[in-house]
Design a protein that fits this description.
By secondary structure, the protein is of the alpha/beta class. It contains seven helices and twelve strands.
């Protein structure tokens, strides 16, 4: 067999009944974020496709003949789920002679590892917000989720204002307001202002104390003038500790309702487990897991990201 099994030679201490206690599965993993952040859909297709249609321009003053408007097609997005699989092999003799009771519980680790992997995948929009190297998605717009170069297919529309959702501000109260004002200037495909509701701050643990202070201080942070804190009560926050492994200074704000419409998680094959029959040639037993998932986004106007790094 080319795989490396877990054998009694490796786990000899588990065969010793004099061991007082075997420590195993002591630590809880990070909270799963898929249901909190994504529009989660099931799919039996090889891929999912999404198409947007632009807005209708304003009517013109009537001068005897109605001036007809027209629509522009928006961008097309294709999301292709990918397969993930893992497993391990146990020596038959190890299963039979284990004195700790741990070996029979090891298959539980398949679920733990698989969910941990899915959770890492689910963090990608906030780990790589300014990267257009997508794992699952092909975007007709072909720019990153957070970018200062978003485009439109509508004719004669300037993208110099309202098509930028990327900044380089360090987190503080002043820059939080600057980012909020940036989102208020977002435009639709024909360059018209839109109504949004950016209500949540996304950040790593390194910024949690600063975020808490800005959101909870009665007085305006950073001055001694006893001014009221404009940001108090305005925001929710979501702390994602995994972000610190990639950037301790990155943070962003989201319109949570718009995010649930535009940020998509595809469950093509839900997590499943398989235990093939015992391999009698080698007296080994395999344990396997398998799932097929993807994520993608159909619009960018639900997020504004900032990282001074």
């Amino acid at each position: 067999m080319s795989e490396s099994p877990f054998t009694s030679a490796q786990a000899v201490k588990l065969l010793d009944k004099n061991i007082s206690k075997v420590y195993w599965d002591r630590f809880k993993g990070l909270d799963m974020i898929i249901d909190k952040l994504y529009d989660r859909i099931k799919s039996k297709k090889a891929w999912e496709e999404f198409q947007s249609v632009g807005s209708l321009p304003d009517p013109q003053r009537f001068n005897g003949v109605i001036q007809m408007q027209n629509f522009s097609m928006g961008y097309h997005t294709k999301i292709v789920p990918l397969e993930y699989a893992g497993g391990f092999i146990l020596e038959r003799r190890l299963v039979d002679t284990d004195q700790s009771g741990i070996i029979k519980k090891l298959p539980k680790q398949l679920a733990i590892a698989a969910n941990r992997k899915m959770n890492k995948i689910a963090h990608e929009p906030f780990i790589y917000p300014d990267s257009a190297a997508f794992t699952f998605q092909t975007s007709e717009e072909a720019v990153a989720l957070a970018s200062n170069s978003h485009t439109t297919k509508a004719a004669d529309v300037s993208t110099s204002t309202g098509f930028d959702n990327l900044a380089t501000y360090a987190f503080d109260a002043v820059n939080l307001e600057a980012l909020r004002l940036q989102t208020l200037g977002f435009r639709d495909d024909i360059g018209e202002r839109i109504q949004n509701n950016f209500d949540t701050i996304i950040h790593g643990s390194a910024l949690s104390a600063d975020v808490w202070e800005v959101l909870n201080s009665t007085g305006k942070t950073g001055d001694n003038l006893n001014n009221a804190n404009f940001q108090k009560g305005r925001w929710k926050d979501i702390e994602l500790p995994l972000l610190d492994d990639y950037s301790s200074t990155g943070w962003g704000i989201i319109d949570s309702m718009a995010m649930k419409d535009a940020l998509i998680w595809v469950d093509a094959v839900p997590l499943e487990f398989n235990t093939p029959p015992l391999d009698y040639d080698h007296m080994m037993r395999k344990y396997q897991d398998y799932f097929v998932v993807a994520w993608g986004f159909t619009d960018w106007r639900w997020v504004c990201w900032s990282d001074p790094a």
